[in-house]
Amino acid sequence: MWDFEHPPLNSELASRYSIDWMLPSECADRLASGAADIGLIPIASLASIPGLRILPGCVIASKGRVRSLLLVRRASQSLATVRSVAADTASRTTVAHARLLFRHWGNPDVPFLPMRADLDAMLEKADAAILIGDPALLALEEQSNRFERGEEELVYHDLAAEWFALTGLPFVSAVWAVAENSPLHEQAVEQIAADFLRSRDHGLQNREALAAEWAPRIALPEQTIRAYLSSNIHYLLDDECLAGMNAFFRLAAEAGILPRYTPPIEAALRA
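The chain above was modelled as a monomer; its predicted structure follows.
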């Protein structure tokens, strides 16, 4: 979102776009209701909301360890014996991936309890917890402090790394989507895609500035944010990410977690 928030292009873009900030799951709801034309949505929403078109080129994905998608469990319990999972409801895609992983771990029927992202409160109600985004990054920063305080031993599973170990493919979290029933015409959609690709590229060129800007906002060390933006997140919707999406949708449909859906091949950015 660099160009939408920083000069010299933010004024120009503000004349064409009205932006509301919310969780990805809420973005999907806005698209479904027709209250928005464009949204950064969990990819799971593509299977449940008809008539969405993926903007090519941009993605939130990871090709290994991501650090911001965590399953935290008590060390005294194995993955196969976890009886309940408290799930941060910020992203439907992460929960769907986690359900698939639990099937792989021999625990396909474990119930998921929607809760606010608070690790201690979640583990009071469930044997394991799913944290997404800033709460996950903060939990990793707090991990050593918990150990020094002699608190209960916990195991932290990076869900993107677990997915890659299972499939050999990227964990794709979110894409930009356009509602096909919106009043946008084809030329406008092409301009939107160009604006978002340009903003992504400018953001990648300014990761140092982003780390300095966001460190005081979310109480994380600047070097942690810099490493996250540089090493953990993949931003290009390429063929490998499209394969990861296809595997996710196929497995989720086979497991009855999501309706069948096949991402359009034109969503991948061609060289």
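Residues 186-205 form the longest helix (20 residues).
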